[in-house]
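Q: what does this look like with manganese (II) ion bound?
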Amino acid sequence: MSCEQAPKIATTPLVVDWPRLLEVLQEHQRFLLTTHIRPDCDAIGSELALADVLRQMGRQVACVNAFSVPPALQFLDENQELIELRDLRAKEEIERADILVVLDTTAWAQLGDMGPVIKGFPRKKIVIDHHVSGDDLGAELFKDTQAEATGRIIAELVRRLGFSFTPRLGKLLFAAIATDTGWFRFNSVRAETFELAGELTRAGVVPDKLYRQLFENERLGRFRLMGRAMARAETELGGRIIHSYILNTDFAETGALSSDTEDIINTTLTVAGTELALMFIEHVPGQFKVSFRSRCHVDCSRLAAVFGGGGHRSAAGATVPGPLEVARARVLDAARRAMQQ
Ligand SMILES: [Mn+2]
């Protein structure tokens, strides 16, 4: 997912062992690709882009996920290549594959019903991801923790194979990178980010069109949900910590989907003086998914780890039992202490 994920914190940046990755891709014939639930453009974009690249290499590819493609992202899956795990075709594809590739996550909690499939997969398994933390998926890891998005790693693969960026690859990878960087505004953005974006634009991406497709295509339900989250915002420590919440009942009342909460927390940091943001979201009744975003010295992955979660320095997440008052008191207490350290 865009930025949050599970336990265990690595200290040194990880880089992809390219000769080894290319060797693994050469050695296998039937690829099964999957990515995380509550998918974003990086998940779907990377998955479809890698599928394209592998087909160009003459490989058989199937993409099987534990989700249906959200309406807002269906324009990326033009040919409806993404198969849902519950589809009849999925079982056959899983049985036929000689390698399973997990993209953009290394966390069981992000894999939904694909978790047991991955656990039980008896052949080669690899992970291609840019998140620092993760679980042991029993797979060989190809991680670049400095990459802005998993899409960056796939773009690098395209270059290393000497393939060119087709308009379709351009769209998939630009969408992956642009959204995982909050449209080129997060601290993961480097000069190389714009260089790659330039290359993808030359391949045929029309950035303003893509922006409108992604960000001016708001569903009314999500718009109303954002309004609730904004109206409930409160601050602590003289405005340095901002927090808000979304209750399970809000989804039905506004007509929003669970996936509509993505990115709302980043909006709270637009309030002047805020340095640390917390968002409590009750996706499952009685249980709060807490998201953390930092613009200061506070390490979100450490803060999330207190509650069994994890992620990056500037963005992380954890799940904390409710009710809201209890979850909020516990997390705010830890946040205040982290802030004052
Ligand atoms: Mn990502």
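The longest strand covers residues 276-284. The chain has 13 helices and twelve strands.
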